[in-house]
């Protein structure tokens, strides 16, 4: 009974504090299940769609046949991927608005140092709770001391206690059945402890003992003292933060931080717009997603140590695996990835044998890409993307676990931190298993990504490359005429392409004048044809000169035929290519004349 009466008529402040705690807990329990609530929703849709994001997959699946048709037409019609403009004034209004919004978010982040201030924000919540615990312990000690100081005969007279301390009257009425002390954590329980102790001490007082008003006042003051002290202490705790805020307000704010990617500041000029547009296009012009991607990229570049990586010496063992050579017809630099080089067991072991070696390979690949990107022109009208040629001839295949792990890791990093740097992905010498693999992953690729992909079988690889890259720019190992070292011809010398029909003969004539030295080179992709060259003078009484006797040339004999002829009389050099096979052949040739000297 005593416990019930104490709880019903305790000071109003205590129940309010108890209610506040009770109200906060249900709010937490209601919020916790919210993240897991949407999880069961996709379950009914699993049988109908693959196990990835349902909305994106559905859109991709509907458009998949259309994309495949576009890729096939691109191969036959030699249509290159159409890049969007990087000039801000020429952008559509929604894209222009998205670019402006992204600039505002980046400017605010630079002003607030959000690109570098993350670690400090994580330390603050750890240090705050400790002072609060010390304050609570000090308050409890003070209350216990004051409770001991209350006189034993402080409470007995009912009329006086009813007017000055209502809680004491309830203790007096039920003093025959003293209640058990409640827990000392809640503020209301602290008052109850004082009253019960005073009630027990009151039993030892003689029945005829008169209690003075002073004793009653002392008991009332002793019981009410803790709440008063709390009121004094609480404002002091609130004043401290206000003083810190005023001090912080007086300190001048630091200047905005400067952040650059690939040597280009995020907010500077038109080159910065080109960088920002890459991130926006990678996220379908969703401003918040693009902004988050930029922040993650900046953070990753710091963690990976990109700036110091550029100066590291990681060796040249992989220079034949990945290399840059030539440009496509639109001026994009071309990067070749030759996976067949990993058929070399020693090279494979030195690159992927353990985690340390795979990490070195990843750093080498990122370093190579960073150096290539630094050579691009980030002006709005410049070339800021590249063409990737992936040679899958003799590729180790999906059975090589180490290669697959390293490749997936590299692809994830490139996808997350190097957006929109590829204008075209050309896969040549594609085996059957890779085509099956591509069909399997194709539904998970966006239409924009798939529109950049081109696949060519071994028989069509050279022909496919020539649609996007001029033959003089294509390396000789892929059917072109570009060779390393000092050569008679360079990439500046244009190449003529001719298709020779099956079972047909084709002749090429080079007219020459007196005292001339004619130089030429040619190749037939796949060869297996007959080749011969002769000089026919202009004079009717002249004699035909055999320059190169007719012979059959196979693909294993010569890659490129280089020849020359000097003459002191005018005439022409005639090259004859006889295709006796049932397949058409691609003929490439070029020539130039040099002054004749004895």
Give structural notes.
With 598 residues, this protein is of the alpha+beta class. The chain is 45% helix and 17% strand. The chain has 19 helices and 15 strands. A hairpin with a 2-residue loop joins strand 1 and strand 2.
Short description, anyone?
The chain is an alpha+beta fold. Among the domains are: 88-113 and 256-304, Helicase, Ruva Protein, domain 3, CATH 1.10.8; 315-484, Phosphatidylinositol Transfer Protein Sec14p, CATH 3.40.525; 485-595, GOLD domain (Jelly Rolls).
Structural descriptors:
single chain, 598 residues, alpha+beta, Phosphatidylinositol Transfer Protein Sec14p, Jelly Rolls, 5-stranded mixed beta sheet, 15 strands, 17% strand, elongated, disordered N terminus, membrane
